[in-house]
Amino acid sequence: MKKLLSILGVIGLTATTTLSVVACNSKKEDENGPWVPDAAVEGIAKISNQRLTTNSIKKISIVSTNGAPFRNGAKIVSSHPEIAEAGINETNKSEITLRGNQVLGTTKIIVSYPGVRNVEFDVEVVAQTTPYIEPIQDVTIIKGKEANKTVAVSVANKTSGTNIAVKTEAPQYGQNEYPQKEPVTTAKVVGDQIVFTLKNNSVGQDNVTVSYGSAKPIKFKVSVYEESYIENPPGKDKSAFATWGEANPNRTSKNVKKENWNGKTYFAPYIDAALYAGDNMKEILAQNMNLDHITLAFAAQDGSQTDKLDISFAGVAKKDPIPEGPYWWYLNKKLVPDILKPIADAGVFKNTKISYGGYNAGAEPEKYLPWVLANKLNPKNAQKAQKDLENAFVNFQKETAALVNQPMSKSIDFDIEGEAQLDIYNKDTRLLAKTLAGMVKKDHDWDFSLTVAVLPTGLVSGPNKGQQVLDSFIEEYKNAQVPLEFLPKVNPMVMDYGNAIYDEAIANGKTNADLAIMAMESTKDQLKASILKYYQEQITDEQAYSLMGSTPMIGVNDTEHGIFTLEDAKELYSWAQVNNLSYLSMWSMNDDRGLSYPIIKDPSNQNQGFLGGQQANKSQTSHGLLYLNEYDFTKVLTGDWKYV
């Protein structure tokens, strides 16, 4: 996945409640303290009945009788998922997530683990009795065609004497400069409606807050723009689509059947942590109730250091030449306040992956891939190379967690693409595989994923291609005698196949979802074949899918004839639930919006800021489907389809 522009270049510098549930489980630790599951488990203690309101989430922790977490990974089934869904947290297997849906009633939750008696408890979903405001989708006003726009406001459980209030504000960025100084609309409540009216005949984007007494306020955006022809980017074809029909040439309906959450598949979108915008995690989490996993991209070797392993985000030099220099600014003014602190405050840091590598690092492996440098620094000492690499990963995971006083996350993704796949780096890929195999063999809490480029036919085989990357990992894990269940999850990037493939698919009546599912099925078969070759074990399709993720590029792809629409996302979501995929992701959180993102002008930078809410081509902060609302893809891929 491409990270096209780092934040440092732009700025000009070189809630949930957790309950404890007691379970009986024996536990053992090695000398370093990691958890290792026992083959036999005494049993799981009774779990008390639970009550949820509609559209709510509750998490309950399973612990053993000695107080340690029960992390063997029980199976969780809801008898009536239309009432409440239930599942185990795949990155924190001692935690059950309960989701109350729209249907009132009681469902039975069955908790099972091989060799022990099932435990059952009831979850009742009741109507919310306190006031709450239904979410409102983003609003657009086309200057020159519309002078105002009216939207309905729905408040449940109203109380006498309480009125709806609304406020519009211009984007706020502290001391940074921004072209829009004032709101471009005024808002007035008329009965159960809000009327937005243009102010000063200006264009821009306002933040809107609607409140009602003690109810939780809701937020959305109103954009004012002049409708105009959008020229294609230089050397590119069309990458901005104003209507649903343009983006969906082979669809006649928006209707897609939603499959219930299977209780396993989670959503961990990539967020480009070194980009200049689109990463306000406080806002993102507030508007996406089901989002509880994040993948931070990308970590790489500090490109300024060639004599030792030292990892940073985007490979930026950690040793600043001046006090409070570029990396200090990035950590303290961007990464921590905009991303890490909101994640930690929401209790999501424990479910956060860090992704190493990526497109840019893969273009310069010698400079930015730590596993390449580890071999280079230890040409005659493979054991030291492996130990140095392990220490570098652990140190950076701890270093990142320490920025917000959190325990170290043990979830890591490795994005190996571009030149990093070349045969000349295969020895380095194998060093990485050996290192990860050694880490997970000692400590099963490590959760690794391997992100790879694919076509609808799967991984490309032959010299200098992705198939050898997968085979190298499977072989090295087998050599280390790591059980199959602890293999790294294989995460195909179902994107950027090339315009010729997209053109042929469109001509044959296929959608981007069809291509994504073809790519997943093809890669699944390759994974099964590789496991059979090296482990001499024939696994089922279900077992293979449990070892896989899937990552589309939302909206217009880099090869722009590929347009991954909201309906494609819905089909992929439902397919993943049916096939019990390990997880879903997307590239990226930063561009999960159709209209442009408001971009600041930093006082130290000569670049001008850009107005939000305007029509524009696909960019790092907008996916190019202008008719969609902010975070529509996130809502779909977290199973929150009510308003999309």
TrEMBL record:
<feature type="signal peptide">
    <location>
        <begin position="1"/>
        <end position="23"/>
    </location>
</feature>
<protein>
    <recommendedName>
        <fullName>GH18 domain-containing protein</fullName>
    </recommendedName>
</protein>
<dbReference type="InterPro" id="IPR054816">
    <property type="entry name" value="Lipoprotein_mollicutes-type_CS"/>
</dbReference>
<keyword id="KW-0732">Signal</keyword>
<dbReference type="InterPro" id="IPR052750">
    <property type="entry name" value="GH18_Chitinase"/>
</dbReference>
